[in-house]
Amino acid sequence: MAQQQIGSLSQAQCQSYWDDGYLFPLPVLSEQSARHYRAQLELIEATNDAQEKPRSVKEYLRTHSEMVVPMAAELATNASVVDCVESILGENVLVWSAEFFIKEPCSEQIVTMHQDLTYWGFGETSNQVTAWIALSESSIESGCMALVKGSHKNPILPHDDTHATNNMLSRGQEVQVDVAEEDKVHLQLQPGEMSLHHGLAIHGSAANRSIDRRIGFAIRYVNPEAGRHLSKKHYAMLARGEDSNGLFNLYQPPASLFDADALTTYETVREHLDSILSAGMEGEKVLFS
Fold this sequence. Notes:
Blueprint: H1 11-20, E1 22-27, H2 31-47, H3 57-62, H4 70-76, H5 79-89, E2 93-103, E3 111-114, E4 128-134, E5 145-148, E6 159-161, E7 173-175, E8 184-186, E9 193-197, E10 203-205, E11 214-222, E12 234-240, E13 248-250, H6 260-277
Parallel strand pairs: 12-13
Antiparallel strand pairs: 1-9, 2-11, 2-12, 3-10, 4-9, 4-11, 5-8, 5-10, 6-7
C-alpha cells in the first residue's frame, strides 16, 4: 500500500521534536520516488568518475552535493521535505549543506556518537535542523542512526578526533560521554521516510551488516537567524523564503551535473567549509579521511 506523504508538521509533532531532539518517521517521498533518486545517484557513481574534475565523485556526493548535483539540489528543496523543516525553523529556510551517507553492504563504516554542532561554527543555536532521508532501508542491521533522547538539551560537549579510516565523519569526532546501548533510540526508516534531528543531539550509527547498501541523504538546514553570531559569513542555498538578514553568501543550484561554474563555486565554498571544520585541529589538517 502506498504511504501517504506528510505536509507541515502538527503542533504535537513539533512539540515532540523540541522535547526529544528528533522526530521520525516522516513519509516525504513515495517508495517509487525514493527508488528513482537512488537510481540517479548510482548512475552518477557509475558513469562520472571518468570525467576530469578536481575531486572524485565520491567526495562531491559526500560534501555539498547540492552545489554540483542537480538531483541533490532538487531533493534538498523538495516541497514535502521543506514543509516539515519550515514547521521547525520558520518561513525562511536555507540549505547549509547536503550530503549522501552511503554504507556499503557488510562493511565496517561507522559514525561515532557525536553532536553535529561541535565544529560547524554556529555555536549552540537551535536555528538549524538536519533532515535525513532514506533512499534504501535503514534498519538496525544496516546501521541506521541511533540517537540519545533529550540529549539536545546539553551544551556542546568535549569531543576527541579519532581520524579512524572507517569513520564517516570529517574528523572522526566522538563525544567524550559513555552512551549505554539501552539509551539509544534507533531511527529505523523505510525508503522515502525521513527523520529530523537537532544539531546538539548525541547520535551515531553502527556498521552495515546487511546485503544491501544503506543510502541516506542528510540535509543541514538553517534559518537566517543562525548567521547572526557567525565569526565569518557562511555560504548557503535558498530553499524557501529569503535570507532576511543578508547574513549568508547565497549560491544557486547547479545548472547541470558538475557544471563548470558550479565546480568553481564549489571550490570556494569547500575552502571556507574546510577552514571551519578544521578549526582547532592539531597536526596535518586532513578531513573526511
